[in-house]
């Protein structure tokens, strides 16, 4: 059976695989709070999704980068956040090792949206220094109205950080780690009369603006959305949905010319 996980290959197997110039998947996530009931190690979802995408498409999945930029969750015990410059250097070192072998189809499987600004900066630096376009999948950016209709039967289901999709994925993949006895109701993300979408976006009279909060200032339990909607069945559907979508993107990315033309 052909190996698709880099960590399981010998160096000679890696050499043979790299000669085919496969899509290289670099899963990333974070170690941060997801409410009292859900484990902090969300990087494991990105790792599992990347592994399954690689099996389906023939891509090669690298070991996950577990740490991310989660500064706004640091008031909650268990969160481990890297400084942006630390994360940037860590990602650059990964890319330098891969690019030296002539690989030019590198795709981040990003399971934490706080990493996205760092990834864009690194990708643009790599474009300048190596002449290669690097791409990113924002996994949970796909968990919008279509996903809600699929898993809950309603596009208006209340989800958010500290509830789904992370809780259902944990209930499916790591059920023994989920503490349903500790579930707290979700909170509206408000502060001094302002309502927030996420941790830094609010609006006044319909005009959006940004105010950079820590999450415990908006919800003392770390929960937004309704954690009672979560289930192992929703987690299984979500996992399948994200792997299906990821495989579509990987196949399309594999066909692209990613080297930047000079001149």
In short:
Helices cover 37% and strands 11% of the residues.
List keywords for this structure.
globular, 263 residues, 4-stranded parallel β-sheet, single chain
In words, what does this structure look like?
There is one protein chain. The chain is α/β, with parallel strands linked by helices and 263 residues long. The protein has eight helices and eight strands. The chain has helices spanning 11-18, 43-57, 84-99, 116-130, 145-152, 166-173, 215-218, 232-254; strands at 24-28, 60-61, 106-110, 135-138, 190-191, 194-197, 201-204, 207-210. It has a four-stranded parallel beta sheet with strand order 2-1-3-4, with helices on both faces. Strands 5-6-7-8 form a four-stranded antiparallel beta sheet, with no helix packed on it. The protein is globular, with a radius of gyration of 19 Å.
Instruction: Tell the overall outline.
Output: globular
Would you tell me the structural class of the helices and strands?
alpha/beta
**Gyration radius, in Å:** 19 Å
> Counting H and I runs of at least 4 residues, what is the number of helices?
8
Total count of strands: 8
**Share of residues in helices:** 25-40%
Tell me the β content.
5-15%
Fold blueprint:
Elements: H1 11-18, E1 24-28, H2 43-57, E2 60-61, H3 84-99, E3 106-110, H4 116-130, E4 135-138, H5 145-152, H6 166-173, E5 190-191, E6 194-197, E7 201-204, E8 207-210, H7 215-218, H8 232-254
Parallel strand pairs: 1-2, 1-3, 3-4
Antiparallel strand pairs: 5-6, 6-7, 7-8
